[in-house]
Amino acid sequence: MPHIAIAGDHFVTPTVFRAALEKELGQTSATFSETTLPWPHEPFGPIGDVIEASGSIAASIAALEGAQIAVSQMAPFTREVFAARPELQMVGICRGGPVNVDLAAATEAGVLVTFAPGRNAQAAAEFTIGLILAAMRRIPLTDAELKRGVWRGDYYAWENVGVELDGTTVGLVGYGAIGRIVARILQAFGSTVIAYDPYADASALAADGVITVELETLLQRSSVVSLHARLTPETKHIIDERALGLLPHGAVLVNAARGGLLDYGPLPDMLRSGRLGALALDVYDVEPPPADWPLFSAPNVVVSPHLAGATTQTATRAADIVARDVADFVAGRIPAHVANPEVLDVLQLNTAS
Question: DSSP letters along 121-147, please?
């Protein structure tokens, strides 16, 4: 009977984790200990040699006492943690990638690491559509002005009115799980969807009714551009000043993926000149952005505090994915979402599903 340490937070709570684990394992198949990390009431950040973590190394080491398995969203799993808890065999991280785990250290320690791809795909896709509509139709701006007593009837003037998604070409930079759902919703609105993703299967995109193009072509043809790529050294600032200059006059740009994909420097001037028609952001190069951030005073900007994936379904889905992987591990099977497959030879798990 394994002991499972649950390091929840105020989004994927210990209660949510435990319910998922008991459903998959049975209530008497494991023992549990629980701790709650301060995120999101306190921002995550780098801790030791990992990024986007919450809590502390010392707290993680204490919480893992006696545990063979740990599940978490935000706890830091650093080299120091693995060294202090040699009995640990598996870490399940309920995020799209285990960014709060030192994978090299886990592999050296013989600890299997799993993650939860697609956990927030539906939530992030729906939120992206909301940002697109909010930016194209100035919904937040007119809401705020009307609450101040300003009736902006002039937005009915030809030079001020918004545009519709029906008949609009929307370019998606990245076509993973989120991009695919966004494309499907946009097509229901009547948009033509084009995409740039050098790693995607062009035939799969074609089957979805999405046209594959090069990045320059996408930028030149799209009235709306939405970012959905992972942040890697190759994609950092993939939308830089040169790329922004390729956009049609008055285009709308949306980023609910990762702040590092976009060079924010040129954006205020582009918005003030009308070269960029509107900007919608859920992610930033620095989170949270400073109070004097230039984009806060630029026109036609919609902002939200990194909330695209924040739904109750995301939290329960994430816990369910991790719990199924834990159940497979306990049964001696290979979990479905392994981040460091090099450990499998050491663990000698059964390949049967």
Answer: HHHHHHHHHHHHHHHHHTHHHHHHHHH
CATH 3.40.50.720 boundaries in the chain: 3-119+311-347, 121-303
Q: Is 287 a catalytic residue?
A: yes
* 258 counts as catalytic: yes
pLDDT in tens, 235-277: 999 999 999 999 999 999 999 999 999 999 999 999 999 999 9
CA separation for the pair 6, 30 (Å, rounded) = 12
What does residue 307 show for φ and ψ, rounded to 5 degrees? -115, 5
Select from 302, 301, 299, 303 the least CA-distant residue to 289: 303
Q: Are 29 and 330 in contact (CB under 8 A)?
A: yes
How far apart (Å, rounded) are the C-alpha atoms in residues 65 and 34? 11
Catalytic residue among 184, 306, 333, 342: 306
Q: Is 263 exposed, middle or buried (0-12, 13-18, 19+ CB in 10 A)?
A: middle
Half-sphere exposure in the Cβ direction for 83 (13 Å, CA): 8
Show Cβ contacts of residue 118 under 8 Å, excluding neighbours closer than 6 positions: 96, 177, 321
Burial per residue of 15-45, b for 16 or more beta-carbon CB atoms within 10 angstroms, e otherwise: ebbbebbeebbeeeebebbebbbebbeeebe
Comparing 150-164, 204-218, 307-321, which segment has the lowest mean pLDDT? 150-164
Q: Which of 87, 164, 216, 287 is catalytic?
A: 287
Domain 121-303 sits in CATH at 3.40.50.720
**Whole-angstrom distance, CA of residue 178 vs CA of residue 122:** 7
8 Å CB contact between 300 and 271:
yes
306 counts as catalytic? yes
Tell which residue, 24, 17, 25, 5, has the closest CA to residue 67. Answer: 5
For domain 3-119+311-347, give the CATH superfamily. NAD(P)-binding Rossmann-like Domain (3.40.50.720)
pLDDT in tens, 274-311: 999 999 999 999 888 999 999 999 999 999 999 999 99
Which of 221, 258, 317, 337 is catalytic? The answer is 258
Q: Name the amino acid, one letter, at 201.
A: D
